[in-house]
Amino acid sequence: MELALRGLRRYPKTTALAVLTVAIGLAASMTTLALLHMLSADPLRGRSQHLHLAWVDTVLAKSQTYRSLDSDWATYDYKRLKTPDAEALLAAHKGTLQAAMADLDAQVGGDKGEPSNEQLLATSSDFIPMFGVALQDGRNWTAAEDAARTPVAVIDSELAQKLFGTPKAIGRVVQIKHHAFRVIGVSQPYAPQPHFYGLNAWTFSGNERESIFVPFGAAIDVGLASSSTDGCDDVTEKSKQYIAVDPMHCEWLAFWVQLDTPQEVTAYRSFLDHYAQQQPLGSFGKKPQSQLLSVQRWLTLQNAIPDNVRLNVLLAGSFLLLCMVNVAGLLAAKFMRRGAEVGIRRALGASRRAVMLHHLFEAGMVCLLGGVLAWPLTLLGLALLRMQDQGFTDLARLDVAMFAALFALALAVGVLVGLLPSWRVSMVQPGLQVKSA
Questions:
Q1: Membrane-spanning regions, if any (predicted)?
Q2: Do 201 and 254 touch, CB atoms closer than 8 A?
Q3: Are 320 and 276 contained in the same domain?
Q4: What is the arithmetic mean of pLDDT over 242-261?
Q5: Could you list the residue range(s) of the whole structural domain that residue 274 is in?
Q6: What is the distance of C-alpha 359 from the center of its chain?
Q7: Number of domains into which the chain is organized
Q8: Is 200 helix (H, G, I), strand (E, B) or coil?
Q9: How many CB atoms neighbour CB 104 within 10 A?
Q10: Among 285, 301, 317, residue at a domain's last position
Q11: Whether 201 contacts 212, CB under 8 Å
């Protein structure tokens, strides 16, 4: 270690160039890796492995005529259900917990200021415990209130502060589309990333989230409905540009179920298959279809992580490899300048192993210093990413795991770039070097 430290100081310009080269390569790689790490993280750690998206095809229309019209340039299939089917699955109660849900835009007003447009989640009573929404005050609504379509709401603390000037909002009334909903609970702000249970609304966002939760039956009663759908029955009037969703005949509700064991997953899949076989689809040329998808499988099918993020990781990794080749060349030139010194050490009894370890330690120190310099450069790169409005770049952060990964990668790079130069310098012939000295 002492010899390695001395070696760093002997050729300061070469050392500085090697450190800077390593730092730039590490910073480029860690910037892209940190973003990929945040985008691919488990959205609900400890819960998501038990959550499954359930879907059954019940649309009474030919397959080529009922696909989503969410936009005029692409078609989507977010595996949603019509209201009667969602209610039937809820009533069957084959899962530990289950929830139907849809993201909606709504004008929400309170005591203070003008009504504002808020993201609202129309759902059922199991959503809050099932998805881990933390209540600060009050309670969730009950299954009985679901069945009675009671106009109650759970709002988050920031919306409560905005509407009433205080997070203590239990018993207050919010106006949703000019209809009164009584606040029975106040939750902490809730924004899992990605927004896996409602990808049709958004996928990644640190700014958008549902700030109010209401029973979906009560939402239907006040005229709230989705502006998009996965398809409608033939009895529904359709438009090429827009579908006015009929909740009874259009697929607009996602249905998620909690299944805690593999046996429960198998049993629920059989239940869905049986339900699908009961649908009168034969006259429309369609076979029974049902699916039960885990969170990770669902995100994979929907390509939730943008392709350009993975491409940037590959490009940054290639750039790091190029930097490593250059650093290996710098270290080889630096180490071979000491041929005479190494030859004398070898003649005095130093082993090849000792010489190689000394230079390998020195290469490791160069790359660790590069890691230290790469830290602020990575933070700068992530800050530049956050300035780009791509819908997911606001998640670019360096957490503890990626901070540790930065220095682990620096050590790995140090070993890789130092192996060949260290081996070469350890192979010098002592006799020739001593004679030339």
A1: 313-333, 354-380, 400-420
A2: no
A3: no
A4: 86
A5: 48-301
A6: 41
A7: 2
A8: coil
A9: 23
A10: 301
A11: no
Residue type, 177: K
The last residue of a domain, from among 255, 276, 301: 301
Nearest alpha-carbon partner for 207 in 18, 403, 393: 393
Which run of H or E residues covers position 412? Answer: helix 400-426
Return d(Cα 231, Cα 245) in angstroms, integer.
9
Tokens of 105: 């835009």
148 and 110, same domain (yes or no): yes
**54 vs 64: CA distance, rounded Å:** 22
CA distance 377 to 401: 17
Q: Are residues 137 and 61 part of one domain? A: yes
As beta bridge partners, residue 118 has 106
- Quick one: 57 and 127 in the same domain? yes
Q: What is the per-residue pLDDT across 299-320, written as a single tens digit (0 to 9) for each?
A: 988 888 888 888 999 999 999 9
- Tell whether 13 and 126 lie within a shared domain: no
Is the backbone peptide bond immediately before 194 cis, with ω within 30 degrees of 0? yes
Least confident of 8-17, 118-127, 293-302: 8-17
Specify the amino acid at residue 105.
D
Shared-domain flag, residues 189 and 281: yes
DSSP 261-299: SHHHHHHHHHHHHHHHHTS--GGGT----EEEEEHHHHH
Same domain assignment for residues 330 and 216? no
pTM: 0.81
199 plus 315 within the same structural domain: no
